[in-house]
Amino acid sequence: MPETRAAPVGGITVVEQADCTVAHLWGEIDESLRDQASTALMRALDRDLPVVLDTSEVRFIDSTGVAFLIQFCRVGRDDGLSVRLHEPPQVVTDVLEMLGMRDMFDDEPSGRREPEVRSGPVVR
């Protein structure tokens, strides 16, 4: 009997734009994405450009996922980079607010276009 694989229920991809690096998080952000999170963090920080964490399609986030967001922000800040959340859903903002960490991310610039997370070189 052939092996069947379940479709991924979450993921992290990195899109390199000219003026920033977008890490697009979707679905369930948990322990199973640890390797993707590490790759995304390294790739984004290597570019030395502002970082956008697009969490607009996150449906669930556990403590590992929250730790990834916080680590991304802290390491980015240590490197002098702007790190912001793009359209975080309530499931993300509720946890960050409960931990008192919502304000650690930069605000979305007003009037700026949405990041185009599905075009450009993707690093998985």
Structure notes:
By secondary structure, this protein is of the alpha/beta class. It has one domain: STAS domain (Transcription Regulator spoIIAA), CATH 3.30.750.24. Helices cover 31% and strands 27% of the residues. The chain has 3 helices and 5 strands, in the order E-E-H-E-H-E-H-E. A 5-stranded mixed sheet has the order 4-3-2-1-5, covered by helices on one side. Helix 1 links the parallel strand 2 and strand 3 (51-61). Helix 1 runs parallel beside helix 2 (63-78). It starts with 9 loop residues before the first strand and ends with a strand.
List keywords for this structure.
124 residues; Transcription Regulator spoIIAA; five-stranded mixed beta sheet; 3 helices; 5 strands; disordered C terminus
List the topology elements.
Elements: E1 10-16, E2 21-29, H1 34-46, E3 51-61, H2 63-78, E4 83-86, H3 90-98, E5 122-123
Helix pairs in contact: 1-2
